Amino acid sequence: MKTLSKIFAILVLLGFLSCNSQPENTKPIDSLPNIYPDYIDVSIPPNIAPLNFLVRDSCLSVYVCASYNDLKINASSSGNQVCFDIDDWKRLVSSAIGNDIKISVFEEKERGVFYQYNDFCIHVLKDSIDQYLTYRLIEPDYEVFSRIKIEQRCIENFDTKDICNYNITDNSCMNCHTFAKNDPNTSLFYVRGKNGGAILNRNGVLQKLNIKKEGMTSGSVYGHFSLDGRYFVFSTNVIIPGFHSEPGKRMEVFDTKSDVYVADFETNQIISSPLLCDTTQAETFPCFSADGRKIFYCSAPILKDNVNNIQNVHYDLVSIDFQDGNIGNHTDTIVKATAGNKPVSVCLPTVSPDGKYLIYTESEYGTFPIWHREAELRMIDLQTMTTDSLKSVNSRNSDTYHTFSSNSRWVVFASKRDDGLYGKPYFFHIDSNGNTTKPFALPQKHPDFYDNCLKSFNIPELSKGAVPFSVKDVESVLKTKSINF
Question: Residues spanned by CATH 2.60.40.10 within the chain?
Fold first, then answer.
């Protein structure tokens, strides 16, 4: 043990020496470095993977040092790519919890001459984030797809695995994965096409369900679990795609009809209410409150000609009581789409596990915000019913598809802020007073990953662990007969 301790001490000392041997011939530049992803002054959880990045300037080489107090680590670099050793990173971050890591960047622009930029900080918060992130990888236009898969990533490192992929689905579409209170042992996602169905995971046991009964317009589409995983509130939608002729606008999706139901997974029954199946309204995007006693959903009048009237479709945020398998007898409008000077449209409500906040997406109209550049996140304090515009979070491009971590302190969402085309997972923190931080992108092992990735990260969802099944398990259950409701 003494020998091992001596070896460890020597290795740490060598790390200090290597970082301290920074370039000698330096010239200061009074500006911050141009890096991607933008990790300058971001706040991170203590269990996140290394924040590797690119230096966007033309240079011969890059020298980067990260430090907290006397602990310093060097990043390896190849050209303009900067990567931290994962063990060094974890040691540094764990020592800096509640404090700031200083990042020093030097660029060799001329042979033997390094330019030193102003240092910047990475703030290490005390609140951890759930270990795993699940998302669908799909072409950003959505109307044509190939080789779709649902992937799960451990965000403490760079390990990934497929949950479902095109190899076992005859290249059919798959989507809408969700967890019960971030629990990997209770989850559900859909596979479309031949032999498709709702794939329910309960403690690693998979079932293929046909969540549909007579009179419903379609099978289940968008859904959300109750706290205990027994109930699943979902919408049934007749979805029509459309394409814009206007420059800068690409695709629109709208419902000609949609209703909301609740599935009981213990009795295999579907619970309905005329208030959630109003033929004059399109009800969609339902979710449970944290205690399971309310259902939040979005509702808009069904217009006579949705194709030509899509810009006049505005969804309200509405709630209805739900208790002991019974739906309430009246609805409450939480956000009235036409109440302000300019109509808006609400979609994708999500409630924090502690029940304190509800975040939704707001756009100018319709129900497909991913291609609305103006789409932004809004946060309601459910205790005071005040709304935060989340100015520190939103960008000039679409920000949407958001979910909370199990401790309610972190939010992941899909943002097109980088190029307006590809959605990428971004994270921000919410403290106990509702204050939010600058978002940061999911770190990747190779800093040029996002430059080379031709897929959008769709519907990012956090979970406390890895799902207890494999692609082969999904392939097997797809061959079974669906369980009908």
Answer: 2-124
Write the CATH number of the domain with boundaries 2-124.
2.60.40.10
Please answer whether residues 279 and 324 qualify as being in contact, where contact means their C-beta atoms are separated by less than 8 angstroms.
no
Report in angstroms the alpha-carbon separations of 473 from 150, 314, 315, 401, 461: 14, 41, 39, 27, 21
Distance CA 192, CA 189 (A): 10
Assess contact for 386 and 378: CB atoms under 8 A. no
Could you tell me how many residues make up the chain? 485
Instruction: Write the pLDDT tens digit of every residue in 208-263.
Output: 999 998 888 888 889 999 989 999 999 998 876 655 555 555 567 778 899 999 99
Domain with CATH 2.120.10.30 in the chain: 132-484
pTM above 0.85, yes or no: yes
Dist CA 95 CA 237 (whole Å): 50
Is the bond into 37 cis (omega within 30 degrees of 0)?
Answer: yes
Q: Are strands 483-484 and 205-210 parallel, antiparallel or unpaired?
A: parallel
Do 234 and 190 contact (CB within 8 A), yes or no? no
- In sequence order, which residues have a C-beta less than 8 Å from that of residue 314 and are 6 or more positions away? 300, 337, 338, 343, 344, 345, 365
How does pLDDT run across 40-58, given as a tens digit for each residue? 999 999 999 999 999 998 8
Q: If residue 123 lies in a helix (H) or strand (E), which one and from where to where?
A: strand 120-124
| Angstrom distance (rounded) from CA 283 to CA 302 | 10
- For residue 262, the surrounding DSSP H or E stretch is strand 251-264
CA distance 33 to 103: 10
DSSP string, 127-167: ----SEEEEEEE-TTSSS--S-EEEEEETTSS-EEEEEEGG
Which long-range contacts does 418-425 make (Cβ < 8 Å, 24+ apart)?
A: 418/36, 418/37, 418/450, 420/373, 421/140, 422/140, 422/450, 422/453, 422/454, 422/455, 422/456, 423/140, 423/370, 423/398, 423/456, 423/457, 423/458, 424/450, 424/456, 424/457, 425/133, 425/135, 425/457, 425/460
What's the confidence (pLDDT) of residue 388? 98
Task: List CB contacts of 137: < 8 A, sequence separation 6 or more.
Answer: 148, 149, 150, 151, 455, 456, 457, 458
Q: Write out the two tokens for 304.
A: 């006579």
Interval 431-464: pLDDT, tens: 999 999 999 999 999 999 999 999 999 999 999 9
Pairing of strands 183-191, 197-202: antiparallel
Whether 322 and 262 have beta carbons less than 8 Å apart is answered as: yes
From the candidate CATH numbers 3.90.1210.10, 3.30.450.20, 2.120.10.30, 2.40.30.170, the one assigned to the domain spanning 132-484: 2.120.10.30
What is the DSSP code string of 168-211?
GTTT--EEEEEEETTEEEEEEEEE-STT-EEEEEETTEEEEEE-
**Predicted pLDDT at 433:** 94
Q: What are phi and psi of 286, to 5 degrees?
A: -85, 155
